[in-house]
Amino acid sequence: MRIVLVGPPGAGKGTQAAYLAENLSIPHISTGDLFRANISQGTPLGLQAKEYMNAGHLVPDEVTIGMAEDRMRQDDAAQGFLLDGFPRNIGQAEALDTFLSAHRLKLDAVLDLEVPEEEVVRRIAGRRICRNDSSHVFHAEYSRPVKEAVCDECGGELYQREDDSEETVRKRLAVYHSETEPIIDYYKKQGLVTTISALGAVTEVTERAMRALPRG
């Protein structure tokens, strides 16, 4: 099974990708993991990416595509994979099609996680992170600490990351709409897209996604 997971920031793609990959026994391939692995291992692509990132520039598509292709060639991806964060634009989607065609493979499904824009803003802008341990995460509305701005786990100060401010979230959504959303129409023309509501409990969303996958 070869799947692409698409959705705006705050849709829960990472969480759903992990559950789906486990259920389907295929690797979860995320752009973030690809970058971290290549940079930490000092691969030629990782060194290129680090150079661009250190200069404050976006990593070019060809570097991201190269990392994704290398990962999809690995043995554990022979029977399938779940792509999360790649492709993120039409150029990357076309490159993925070319790669799959060259290996006589094809995508089985594109799952589009749908969340209303205001819900995305609420989810991300409400996050509060512990300064002592970033794995301690709370939410101003959905998962409030017992004491305002104090971590229940360790007593550390809770704060809002700069990336989580409402202004930044809306900018990230604008980028998603202009760059990534067009790949949904691209894949719709191939008959691959199923749109799934990402509202509700994590398990409910996973069940919807599993039901949307082709059988056989």
UniProtKB/TrEMBL annotation:
Record carries keyword tRNA-binding: no
Catalytically driven reaction(s): AMP + ATP = 2 ADP
Pathway involvement of the protein, from the record: Purine metabolism; AMP biosynthesis via salvage pathway; AMP from ADP: step 1/1
EC annotation from Swiss-Prot or TrEMBL: 2.7.4.3
Protein's recorded name: Adenylate kinase
One GO molecular-function entry: AMP kinase activity
First-level EC class: transferase
Family: Belongs to the adenylate kinase family.
Primary site of residence: cytoplasm
Region (NMP): 30-59
Residues where AMP binds: T31, R36, H57, L58, V59, G85, F86, P87, R88, Q92, R161, R172
Description of its domains: Consists of three domains, a large central CORE domain and two small peripheral domains, NMPbind and LID, which undergo movements during catalysis. The LID domain closes over the site of phosphoryl transfer upon ATP binding. Assembling and dissambling the active center during each catalytic cycle provides an effective means to prevent ATP hydrolysis.
